[in-house]
Amino acid sequence: MSPKRTLADEPYTARIPADIDTPDKIAYHLTARQLAVLAVAAVCGYGLFTALSRALPIPVAAGVLIPPAGAALALALGRRDGLPLDGWLWAGLRYLRHPKRSRPQPAIAIDDDGVLDTGAHRLALVASTTVNIGLRSQDEQTALIAGFGRWLNSLSAPVQIVVSTRRVDLSRQAQRVSDTARTITDPGLAALAGDYAAFLGQLAQQRDPLWRTVTIAHPGPRALRDAEHTATALATLGASTAVLDGGAALAVLTCAIDPFTPADTGWPRAIPSRAITGEKP
After folding, report:
1. Residue by residue, what is the 3-state secondary structure of the chain?
2. Hey, how many other C-beta atoms are within 10 angstroms of the C-beta on 227?
3. pTM
4. Within a 10 A sphere around the Cβ of 122, how many other Cβ atoms?
5. Exposed site from 48, 84, 123, 197, fewest CB < 10 Å?
6. Residuewise pLDDT in 10s, the chain (281 residues)
């Protein structure tokens, strides 16, 4: 006979209303924004009606005010995609006022710790893998969501999370495994490595494998410290994380320039400020 479950055994859940960001109703089921729009429209309409009634009959003056009154009501009460129409109008005016040209902020310097200098601010990059929450139990899902929420609440500055999918060039990995197999002295291990290299080569020819990457950019004067905090917090959720150093960050940026070309970010590049040395041939 299974033991009886109590309320203490159930996972803690809380209902959050979907309309938590809905503005408060001030009067007549209208918000302060809607009342302000209607009040301004009423004052302007009264002034226009007073001016028109001196030169036109009252019915004609009232008819002239019908289209502006309808527009004011639509602006105050109308919504589209969950946003008020005055918000759309204000966004459109800001779009028309701003110049239509791209203003990229490329990295002008990368130090050995991986901190990027764009001139306007400094950035630190964190690489992370994904966590399959669908295969977890309900208690594990609740714990993962709570942990992710704690990380979001701990952020003191905006971050950028880039989830990208790129092609994986397995032919290079197969070549590296094949080269390593030739150096193995044990015949059995060498044969297994050779078979694995052949499998990777066959997979590269028959399939188009994809690799999903998650990169988190931390801006600000404490970019490196915040990036280390993010790497630690996400690692507790089961993700493999790493704060990218200078070479790894440069490799990620190099591959991001052309996302449709297979590239290998597994080996770091030399940062621009580092001298490249080697033995003479």
Report:
1. CCCCCCHHHCCCCCCCCCCCCCCCEEECCEEHHHHHHHHHHHHHHHHHHHHHHCCCCHHHHHHHHHHHHHHHHHHHHCEECCEEHHHHHHHHHHHHHCCCCCCCCCCCEECCCCCEECCCCEEEEEEECCCCCCCCCHHHHHHHHHHHHHHHHHCCCCCEEEEEEEECCHHHHHHHHHHHHCCCCCHHHHHHHHHHHHHHHHHHHHCCCEEEEEEEEEECCCHHHHHHHHHHHHHCCCCCEEECCHHHHHHHHHHHHCCCCCCCCCCCCCCCCCCCCCCCC
2. 25
3. 0.55
4. 19
5. 48
6. 445 555 555 555 666 665 566 677 777 778 888 888 888 888 998 888 888 888 888 888 888 888 888 888 888 888 877 778 877 888 888 888 877 665 556 778 888 888 888 877 889 999 998 888 888 888 888 888 888 888 988 888 889 998 887 777 788 888 888 888 888 888 889 899 889 989 988 888 888 777 778 899 998 888 899 999 999 999 998 888 999 988 888 888 877 776 555 555 555 566 666 666 666 65
Tokens standing for residue 219? 């801006």
**What are the structure tokens assigned to 223, written together?**
């970019």
Backbone angles phi, psi at 163, to 5 degrees: -110, 115
